Amino acid sequence: MSKLHHSRVPAYLDFLQSMSGLILALFIVGHILFEASILLGPDAMEKMTLFFEGYYFFGARYPIIITLLAAFIFALFILHAALAIRKIPSTYLQYKTFKTHKDRFRHEDTSLWMVQVVTGFAMFFLGSVHLYFMMVNPSKIGPYLSAQRVVEGWMWPLYLLLLFCVVLHAFVGLYRLALKWGWFEGKNYRTSRKIMKRLMRAGIAAYIVIGLASLGTYISIGLHLDETPAVKVDK
Ligand code: HEM
Fold first, then answer.
1. Which CATH number covers residue 209?
2. From the CB of 215, is ligand 1 less than 6 Å away?
3. Which element (helix H / strand E) includes 175?
């Protein structure tokens, strides 16, 4: 392999890491909103479930669509993690060198990188559990079945941790991507950077609030399943 050829590989892998991260972040931005349909009531969440099962297109439910989607997301998730860990040791060395100056400079971007490492590491476990379950139990989704899993299936502690990890990771990731690729870069770099940082913080706050409200609603439905006459947990 020529030297030139060799030197292109890291750039290509870096691009793949960015692209997979972008798709995963956009997926999460949608996911948390779709799943927040529970805030509008069980019927809204039921309709959302039917939509993703292709009911409104094919006139019948095809949970296999969920399996395929989850398998695709899982593959991206693994690819993204594999590409990211390869950079941890070298970036960590730079980080350590930097850390001596960090207190003086308070270099925020190195701190943001640490946020990505910690939340990313936690998601190896938290994200995998959830994705695997969705992939193999695609027909067990719905306002009551989900609520039952959250409470009786003891998923709520996992979702609580996962929510914080994924929201931080996705928005910090989008912010870093925007800087790296120079998106929305106006005439003044400092100003656009400030605006992007504000957008990142607003995104994190909004999604944590929405996610917590949804999780609270699933928990509340799950705790009162016995008193719900119309529970259809036998799909
Ligand atoms: C195609 C793949 C996925 C499907 C079909 C899916 C589906 C769902 C559903 C139906 C719920 C509601 C609770 C339940 O039914 O147990 C849920 C909750 C949740 N999911 Fe996913 N999910 C997928 C991928 C992911 C990924 C990749 C992540 C993050 C790495 C994630 C993070 C979460 C979180 C944090 C919650 C709780 C949300 C809250 O607190 O409001 N999901 N998911």
1. 1.20.1300.10
2. yes
3. helix 156-181
Q: What tokens were used for 147?
A: 């609520």
Number of domains composing the chain: 1
Is residue 130 situated within a structural domain? yes
* Domain membership flag for residue 80: yes
Q: Is the pTM of this model over 0.85?
A: yes
Q: Whose CA is nearest to atom 35 of ligand 1?
A: 163
Pocket of ligand 1 contains residue 166 by CB under 6 Å: yes
DSSP string, 53-107: TTHHHHSS--THHHHHHHHHHHHHHHHHHHHHHTTHHHHHHHHHHHHHHHHHH--
- Sorted by sequence, the CB contacts under 8 Å of residue 227 that are 6+ apart come out as none
With a 6 Å cutoff on the Cβ, whether 123 touches ligand 1 is yes
Q: What is the pLDDT of residue 1?
A: 44
Q: Is residue 155 in contact with ligand 1, taking CB distance under 6 Å?
A: yes
pLDDT: is 7 or 206 the higher one?
206
Residue at 30 is within a domain: yes
Dump pLDDT digits (tens) for 68-77: 999 999 999 9
Domain that holds residue 109: 15-227
Rounded to the nearest angstrom, the distance between the alpha carbon of 92 and the centre of ligand 1 is 31
